[in-house]
Amino acid sequence: MAEEKLPNWLKNRAHLSPDRPAIEFEGHTYSFLELYTLSEKMAGRLSSIGLGAGDSCAVLLRNHIDGVVVIHALFHLGVKIVMLNNKLTAKELSWQIKDSKTAYLVSEGSFSGKLADIGEILPDLKLHLMEELPEEGTAGVLQEFYLEDTATIMYTSGTTGNPKGVIQTFGNHWWSAVGSVLNLGLHEEDSWYCAVPIFHISGLSILMKNVIYGMKVVLAERFDEREANRSIQENGVTIISVVTAMLNRMVQDMKGTSYPKTFRCFLLGGGPAPVHLLEVCKEKGIPVYQTYGMTETSSQIVTLAPEYSMAKIGSAGKPLFPSQLRIEKDGTMCEPGAVGEIVVSGPNVTKGYFNRMDATQQAITDGWLYTGDLGYLDEEGFLYVLDRRSDLIISGGENVYPAEIENVLSTHPDVFEAGVTGTEDEKWGQVPLAFVVLHQGAELGESELLEYCKEYLASYKLPRNVIFCKELPRNGASKLLRRELKKEMGEWR
Amino acid sequence: MAEEKLPNWLKNRAHLSPDRPAIEFEGHTYSFLELYTLSEKMAGRLSSIGLGAGDSCAVLLRNHIDGVVVIHALFHLGVKIVMLNNKLTAKELSWQIKDSKTAYLVSEGSFSGKLADIGEILPDLKLHLMEELPEEGTAGVLQEFYLEDTATIMYTSGTTGNPKGVIQTFGNHWWSAVGSVLNLGLHEEDSWYCAVPIFHISGLSILMKNVIYGMKVVLAERFDEREANRSIQENGVTIISVVTAMLNRMVQDMKGTSYPKTFRCFLLGGGPAPVHLLEVCKEKGIPVYQTYGMTETSSQIVTLAPEYSMAKIGSAGKPLFPSQLRIEKDGTMCEPGAVGEIVVSGPNVTKGYFNRMDATQQAITDGWLYTGDLGYLDEEGFLYVLDRRSDLIISGGENVYPAEIENVLSTHPDVFEAGVTGTEDEKWGQVPLAFVVLHQGAELGESELLEYCKEYLASYKLPRNVIFCKELPRNGASKLLRRELKKEMGEWR
Description:
The structure is a homodimer of 493-residue chains.
Chain A: E1 5-7, H1 9-16, E2 21-25, E3 28-31, H2 32-47, E4 56-60, H3 65-77, E5 80-84, H4 90-99, E6 104-107, H5 112-121, E7 126-129, E8 144-146, E9 150-156, E10 164-169, H6 170-184, E11 191-194, H7 201-214, E12 216-219, H8 225-234, E13 239-243, H9 244-254, E14 265-269, H10 275-283, E15 288-294, E16 299-303, E17 318-319, E18 324-329, E19 332-333, E20 340-345, H11 357-363, E21 364-365, E22 368-377, E23 383-387, E24 393-395, E25 398-400, H12 402-411, E26 415-425, E27 429-438, H13 446-454, E28 465-468, H14 482-492
Parallel strand pairs in A: 2-12, 4-5, 4-6, 5-9, 6-7, 11-12, 11-13, 13-14, 14-15, 27-28
Antiparallel strand pairs in A: 1-8, 2-3, 9-10, 15-16, 16-17, 18-19, 18-20, 20-22, 21-22, 22-23, 24-25, 26-27
Helix pairs in contact in A: 1-2, 2-3, 4-5, 6-7, 8-9
């Protein structure tokens, strides 16, 4: 088969619909032609520091028009982008940069503190602030994107500890956008609100839809429920991507007001939604599409359409058109109602983890991704997700991986072993809770241990509490049973 | 690259949105689940006559729900479909069946006359009427379609005489549908009116969109302007595919009435539209999207959006998102405004002609299809098509190929040589006109020669007149100059 290729997305969009609004940011609207012109100029500046086709480059960016421009500029040059989570610590970021084997980091002055620390950890890294790039430079802009080529790498953990770089090809992003449009449809007046991070697949997938659909995106540097509501009520926003906490805050903020008829939907991801919130939305006539997806599926892969939102409350829905889904237990397909591992396939699914043959082979068989998540299908084929990853903690929409925190705790000289699980939290949904077994005779206090963690972990990953105990629950193969921790937590409360 | 595959379109659609309306035909609406159930049963009946994966089967069908069912049933079985034009003569059809190397023809009783003749010409053909298939039969339904696999073969001529079978893969159909949705958008309430033949790419592409989008299609056995207008005005149709003659008749029929706001557009194909008709539409507020496409591009590949319909009147627009376009003359790209051959590429473009290596290599280079059509781009990249194929005659929306008629004329024993061109006709747009040079001393009359043609040519291909002359205009390489015939025609008038 000839390798499938498509004309460079933003360049093509600027040719097909130059005058349409592309991005609205801080009150200014950039047309597709303007966005392309900025990105072409930025490509020239980036090429002058040595970046070119086949290179990879890490980026540490805010949700900002300049960040959007940098992303497209790197695509123009044929540079693979390692999307860094700007909430991580310098140590975490350095680990990912090193693992991704990229020689470049492009960022901005607002992260100067972290950047200085990264520079110390990785003295050979070519670290550039976008504000300080040479003003002039010309570069050839890729005419076409090959769908098989890597567009982005995003780090995600899992239960095995070290984060893994998920490879997302242009094809993965393309098919994700196409699968979504065949589900949500596309209206001329569509305008998508993006207050989720563009370094996450939730935000990046909106930027891909932006150029593929020729659809306006309203970009917010940070989420504010009043501003988001105002954008829907007064500024023509028709679709907004949210996690539960955002939806909750927006619904609270609405009070007596309502959304205009032109508003199409909340696209709700980042973990299961509490039923009572969905019921409130139904009552108020707020359309919510629940979704299920992950970095490895380049955004949503299963979505519940609003026509089913009450009859199938709590369900994540059915797969997008190009994708498939099954539930497996011990190597066989489960009957409806029976719980098993969620297994997915489709052209939006990653081909694997960067430089991790083993992890890739473990997760993907014949194009089917074993998500590690548990769930079941009802008689009509609707998916119910029981645990987003068996042990994953979702805190304020961020994935928090217990193993990562456990690894840090375990590095403290006084700690024998550690187990982490999530506990309910009104503000963040969940927060981590640590169970720690100290070495015999060691004396370590909770606050001292948490202080230690701060050096290695972003604040949202810090355990709310440390519970010291004599041993951790383990199964026959000595594998930590995190579910048992929850039971112990109940007793501890 | 792993071969891309997608879940069986109709089966998947019946799973994802079983209760949505799929096809409305003669007042009855079939849901996607009903359509799938019918097609699954039909697959069983077709398998009982020996059809199975890897076979090919010709079909001779009307625009009818049963025809739609047969098409999906053959897809379920993994059978390649040779789509026959039901307006052709038995001889023409037999030629195509033989050329396609298919052993099977599935048709219906309403074509019994033609079928009897075909049976005589091809005594070994396994010819079956769908009404007389065994009632029972079970068959495995394909779970997935590989995008590289051939879905359909459609015959088209060209200037070289014999028709060629255009290979259309599942991928070609898929990308055509996706390219269109990224241009037209997709609304929940969309309903597409199909009165163009389903054996043409114009109609078949609507059936593909039907299952890929999960969008309702209103199918008409034949075009009637009053019925089409009624469907838009009273029956919720939002999009209709037309050729100029259909649009003209519908606009005439509207008189003082208007279309509802929910009506989205006429998709106008099948050749350039007269400017005065477009102006009338603009005046009446009728949205018309002009398009350019062909069997080889699996439907439209260039489309003019209505926002440009007046500023760019007469233009076919810009390529669909996944496709590309350039104008070439003597191997180099033309500047804006300069006329050259229209060359297109994209994942909707055929990989070639069935069993015609030479024709394929002549038409396609590095994935770029040389259309044989002449045109130019303006400064902004909008395409203007000058001749739909340099010599093609479009009669009532049907392609009529001069070379094919010339071939028939030339087989008459009294004819030395023949040239055919089109002449304007109020009813059909164009009709063929023949210029014939007789052998020395031969005496043959116009009506006698036309009578002879009737045996070999569908009625819409019959020349309106035969003009006897002493010689035909030819260029230095003895190639017939059909453009010169038009000049002679002027003198003859």
